[in-house]
Description:
This protein has helices at residues 94-101, 119-128, 132-141, 174-180, 208-219, 228-234, and strands at residues 62-64, 70-72, 107-113, 142-148, 155-157, 160-162, 164-167, 170-173, 188-192, 198-203. By secondary structure, it is of the alpha+beta class. Helix 3 (132-141) packs parallel to helix 5.
Amino acid sequence: MAPSSNRTPAPSSTNRPRNSGTMMTPQIPYRPGAQTPTQSNPSDPTGDWRQGVVPAPSGKPATARGDNAASVTAVAPLSSTPAAPAVSVNWMTIEQALEKSKTEKRKILIDVYTNWCGGWCKQMDSTTFANPAVAKYLNDNYYPVKFDAEQKGEIVFKDKTYNFKSNGNRGYHELAAHWLSNRFTYPSVVFLDENQNVIQSLSGYVVPRKMEAILNYFGTNSHKTTPWETFERKFGK
Length: 237
């Protein structure tokens, strides 16, 4: 739901994320994790999977060591078939995605990051989004967007104007606050439907295989009819 005015309230530790998707599973409590403006060395890299249709992953796929470094456990390949030719995600701006949506409606995936998010944001780029299966599905079925949550500049989204707001020594963009329900944890991935409504936002590092399943889950609209656990169990079989 878009804000009732053009001004987005400043982040508050008491705010809880709003559920924007169709609930197929019980609500998942908020779990802090990944990197926040005051937390550069996360103890829980699995992050905060917001209330919605996809529950939190089990276990920790990686362990942080130092402020901007990460040591990640090995992830099983998506299949035993020969590796596909290298493919990369065709990232675009939110303005470009909205313009493309005028002629061909697609869902939009938004990778929300900041310049100071070193470890897990870079890990997502170098592993998850570099995975050929993930990159191909994104390019074929979504408009993939990179969005700096602290960028400056006016953005018009769904007939409302959003700007950068100073907040202490840092600041935030009102549009990021809108998508993330004022919960600034990075990296975060936001899924928008074909009408630019939030389906769900997911925060924290996601391994390639899990991301591939989530992309298919929302991309095929299975979240409207199938519980996530059922879809995940059958995915790839």
